[in-house]
Design goal:
7-stranded parallel β-sheet; Epimerase_deHydtase; NAD(P)-bd_dom_sf; 13 helices; NAD(P)-dependent_oxidoreduct; 46% helix; NAD-dependent epimerase/dehydratase domain-containing protein; 395 residues; 3-stranded mixed β-sheet
């Protein structure tokens, strides 16, 4: 005989269930009312504790090596403006006038050291989640060529070593160079190109090619390093050897460079702000071990000077200066440099570079990183009035 539940027992059970649901709903409503007030009264860390293990603190601590440089300084400003906490790794002797002042909140701080000094670099790595290794010795010629290896190769070696000793680092962005891929005489290069290593125009090129292999080998071993390859970087900012377009425009508009130099489609020109955004996009979307060319418009220095002439309504250069004359000037400049201690604008290795083409496509970065480089015309339209405002050129 089947047991039948009494009506009053069924009603009691239903009533209890409804009451229980009501209590849960009331508690949830009360919780939702209390939480916003609590969060508004407490610091951000309390909110993170409330959410628990699922909470992610979006204010990542980022270390930028070479922060006093043309690219590194611009990167620091952009990262800070985007809400990151930034450590700028600089030498005691570096010109840091272009960097923002350190903040009391610690959102921007200076970390002193040198990439060739492992202990100072390891200390700077502390508490950082992302490393932007932009530090490099960028010159076509210096009296002591061994410094290229110690800074550009040894510096990356120390970065990789410090990563292994630091538990917090999640990703390393390594600023390589188009030189690491080699010249592209007669074709447009991409990320699959490998330097032949048979000949190097400059010691800088050699050091970046060696460091590039080191970065890729590290990625193959599981290090989360993403190498990016800027072209010839230009734009407003520092007028140094890292901003060669600015230096040559100053020479051109001060009548010290009457003609033009180099090959057709000799270089891939990229604006510094585009390269900065490319670095940040590679941090967000780039895959370890994948190469990303952050280049731009492929053009010659004649194209640069012609565009500058159109923008400023001045005369275009009418002739190509023979490389043999540039080379003779380069040797003379090196002799003068050894006496004065001032590095030359033109040197024999520079002439070797000008004998080749260095043209690359950035289609991969456009597709995978949403990289969007501006045209040479756009970049120069911004840059020329800036040089004029500094009193460096007249037109």
């Amino acid at each position: 005989m089947t047991a039948v539940t009494a009506p009053h027992q069924s009603s009691k059970s239903l009533h209890s269930a409804v009451t229980y649901v009501k209590v849960l709903l009331l508690r949830q409503a009360a919780f939702l009312k209390v939480v916003p007030n609590w969060i508004s009264q407490e610091k951000e860390q309390n909110a993170v504790d409330l959410i628990g293990e699922k909470a992610i603190n979006m204010k990542k601590v980022v270390l930028v090596t070479g922060a006093s440089g043309f690219l590194g300084g611009r990167l620091c400003h952009t990262l800070l403006n985007q809400g990151y906490s930034v450590k700028a790794f600089v030498r005691r002797t570096s010109d840091i006038s272009a960097l923002p002042p350190p903040t009391s909140t610690g959102d921007f701080q200076l970390a002193y050291g040198d990439v060739t000094d492992y202990s100072s670099l390891l200390e700077a790595f502390s508490s950082c989640q992302v490393i932007f290794h932009t530090a490099a010795l960028v010159e076509p010629w210096i009296p002591d060529p061994s410094r290229f290896s110690s800074v550009n190769v040894g510096g990356l070696k120390n970065v990789l070593k410090a990563y292994k000793e630091t538990k917090t680092v999640e990703k390393i962005m390594y600023t390589s160079s188009f030189f690491a891929l080699g010249s592209t005489d007669g074709h447009i290069g991409d990320e699959t190109q490998v330097h032949t290593a048979k000949y190097f125009c400059t010691e800088y090129e050699k050091s970046k090619a060696i460091a590039d292999k080191m970065a890729l080998d590290a990625a193959a071993e599981g290090v989360p390093i993403v190498p990016v390859y800027p072209g010839v970087i230009y734009g407003t900012g520092k007028v140094t050897s890292s901003n060669m377009v600015a230096l040559l425009l100053v020479e051109r508009f001060n009548y010290r460079l009457p003609g033009y130099v180099g090959q057709e489609n000799g270089f891939s020109f990229c604006h510094v702000d585009d390269v900065v955004q490319g670095h940040i996009a590679a941090m967000d979307k780039g895959l370890p071990g994948e190469r990303y060319l952050l280049t731009g418009e492929n053009a010659s220095f004649k194209d640069v000077f012609d565009e500058a002439a159109i923008i400023t309504r001045t005369a275009k250069p009418r002739f190509r200066i023979p490389l043999i004359l540039i080379e003779a000037y380069g040797w003379l400049s090196v002799l003068v440099s050894r006496i004065t201690g001032k590095l030359p604008l033109i040197s024999p290795p520079t002439v070797d570079v000008l004998r080749h083409q260095w043209a690359y496509t950035c289609e991969k970065a456009k597709m995978e990183l949403d990289y969007n480089p501006r045209s040479l015309k756009e970049g120069l339209t911004e840059m020329l009035p800036w040089l004029k405002s500094l009193g460096l050129i007249k037109y």
